[in-house]
Design brief:
By secondary structure, the protein is mainly beta. Helices cover 0% and strands 54% of the residues. It has one domain: OB fold (Dihydrolipoamide Acetyltransferase, E2P), CATH 2.40.50.140. The protein is globular. This is Small ribosomal subunit protein uS17.
């Protein structure tokens, strides 16, 4: 077999919406896509539960999250870095 490339994990950048849980945050990732019929760009938002080991994320922070193994029922992402703090 040829060498198989590993660690091709998805990464997303989004805004922290909630940090009310212990070591977990909810991140909203917005993507803009063109409407099929009207051609207008529409914003679609998806929420991800992400693991925040040190509890250092606050609502409004811009963070990079990465796909990981299932950590709980809903958590399949982890916070890689905080790009920008909330003002």
């Amino acid at each position: 077999m040829a060498t198989i490339e590993r660690n091709l994990r998805k990464e997303r950048i989004g805004k922290v919406v909630s940090n009310k849980m212990e070591k977990s945050v909810t991140v909203a990732v917005e993507r803009r896509m063109k409407h099929a019929m009207y051609g207008k760009f529409v914003a679609k938002t998806t929420k991800f539960m992400a693991h925040d080991e040190k509890n250092e994320c606050n609502p409004g922070d811009l963070v990079k999250i990465s796909e990981t193994r299932p950590l709980s029922k809903n958590k399949r992402w982890r916070v890689v870095e905080i790009i920008e703090r909330a003002k």
